[in-house]
Amino acid sequence: MSTISKLFPELDRHALRHLLRNNQRVESGDPVFADPLECLLEIGVITTREHTYVRCAYPDDYDYQERHDLACEGVVEIDPAEDEYYCPVSGDPIGDIERKTRFVEYEITLSPDGIERYLDQALGCLEAVDAVEKVGPAAFQVQVKERPLLSVVVADYAGVRRRSAGLFFAEPTLYVIASPINDPLKTVLDELQYMQMAEILSSSASVVQERLRVAAIPIPGRTSLLETEARFDAMIVRYGKRAWQFFEQQFVPALMLHATQNPALVQGYLETLKRLSGTIFGEYYVPIGGAGLPDLRMIDKFELMNRVFGGKATGDAKCYPSSTLSYHDVVTVNYQLDADPTGAETALIFVSGDDVASTAWNAVMQLKQQHGAWKVIILTKYLLLELISALEATHLLEM
User: Fold this and answer.
1) Do residues 211 and 258 both lie within one domain?
2) Is-contact 106 88, C-beta < 8 A?
3) Rounded-to-integer distance, Cα 197 and Cα 16, Å
4) How far apart are CA 190 and CA 186, in angstroms?
5) Is the domain of 258 the same as that of 372?
6) Secondary structure (H, E, C), 227-261
7) Which among 26, 73, 14, 71 has a CA at the least distance from the CA of 51?
8) Cβ atoms 213, 129 nearer than 8 A
9) If you compute the radius of gyration of the chain from its CA atoms, what whole number of angstroms results?
10) Is residue 328 located within the same domain as residue 246?
């Protein structure tokens, strides 16, 4: 089998949409799913866990006529650590389980690393693609012949910058939707701006190639993320050692004043986030840490920004373009909020970089849990750039 045929196997799309779901189970030997399942395992986009079970009432079993309910649909999974088994539906004991007919199911788990490796290979082997570069978790920059750079982003696993940039900035982006449960709403993405994994694996290489060419066109009417970021960085550099004073005392107040003076733009931004809410494009994950327990927590952008613009807030700016916002920073800001004489309900931490310690995120999440609402909000560099673009405030970058 050629590399192209292996990477673009043109499998049945219906079967793929069934299989590409975490915790989905399929029965061993099912003729509809056997070949697609084997192919997905071979290219590494899923892993499986085997489950062996018996049926409470199965006509071919020795004890079938002894069951109280011959139509019982209960199944009992075999566990080597168990000595006694009972049907979870009827409650009847299962006798000599070794004599009963055994069935095997495979439980599916999507592999983010496997999906990344697959896309890296699949995109790189296309004739129309000159180069593929991984630029972050679940994100690639793809150079399509005679086209601008195209971001290819697995929306299910990407960070906030890669997941959101294609919605708020001009850079062309093709979103890959790994699991059908994350199907984007038609009101969220243009149909030419995304492909499902099921669509890629059921299409020919030429079809996927054409979708890349169509997607690799800048979005009119939007600002460029790279250009906006470059201007932001240049602004910080202009002030040298005074950058922290400028950022805290001039730029951030000017941005918030601009928001106050342009309520229609703020409302439009919030309405966009509300439309995205409930989809993978309306949320992002941050790492939390503490007590040796790293984890991820989800932030709903609409809920967050609604609090930024809808509550009584005080601000604190940290000009950290190349260092980390720490746990101590969050604790200090929270202390200042509690002592604030104006009765502010929320403290906003504006950061000129994207590096935030997991312990800082943990402190923010704990405060939210304790108070039932956002008490301290961290606005990282990307979120600031998104605000600057959405609120049409790029002129402030010339301060």
Assistant:
1) no
2) no
3) 8
4) 7
5) yes
6) HHHHHHHHHHHHCHHHHHHHHHHHHHHHHHHHHHH
7) 26
8) no
9) 26
10) yes
- Picking from 109, 132, 154, the residue at the C-terminal end of a domain is 109
Can you give the CATH number for the domain in which 374 is found?
3.40.1350
Show the domain range for 79. 11-109
Q: Are residues 244 and 377 in the same domain?
A: yes
Same domain, 292 and 351: yes
Please identify which residue in the block is written with the tokens 């495979």: 106
318 and 374 housed in the same domain: yes
CA distance 177 to 301: 20
Tokens standing for 183? 């199907």
Q: H-helix or E-strand containing 46?
A: strand 46-55
Residue by residue, DSSP assigns 126-141 as -TTEEEEEEEETTEEE
pLDDT reported for residue 83: 85
Token pair for 357 = 């310690």
Quick one: tokens of 80? Answer: 């080597």
Q: Which amino acid is at 135?
A: V
Whether residue 314 contacts residue 347, with contact meaning beta carbons closer than 8 Å, is answered with yes
Alpha helix (H) residue ranges in the chain: 3-7, 13-19, 34-43, 112-124, 160-168, 197-202, 205-215, 225-238, 243-246, 252-261, 263-276, 301-310, 327-338, 358-371, 381-390
In a domain, 2, yes or no: no
Determine the pLDDT at residue 239: 94
Q: How many independent structural domains does the chain possess?
A: 3
- Do 120 and 89 share a structural domain? no
Is residue 4 situated within a structural domain? no
> CA-to-CA distance for 282 and 219, rounded, in angstroms?
20
- In a structure prediction context, what are the per-residue pLDDT tens digits for the chain, which is 399 residues long? 578 889 999 999 999 999 999 999 999 889 999 999 999 999 999 999 999 999 999 999 999 998 989 999 999 999 888 889 999 999 999 988 999 999 999 999 999 999 999 999 999 999 999 999 999 999 999 999 999 999 999 999 999 999 999 999 999 999 999 999 887 766 788 888 999 999 999 999 999 999 999 999 888 888 999 999 999 999 999 999 999 999 999 999 999 999 999 999 999 999 999 999 989 999 999 988 765 555 889 999 999 999 999 878 888 889 888 889 999 999 999 999 999 888 889 999 999 999 999 999 999 999 999 999 999 999 999 999 999 999 999 999 999
Give the span between the Cα atoms of 222 and 392, in whole angstroms.
10
Query: For position 278, what pLDDT does the model report?
Result: 87
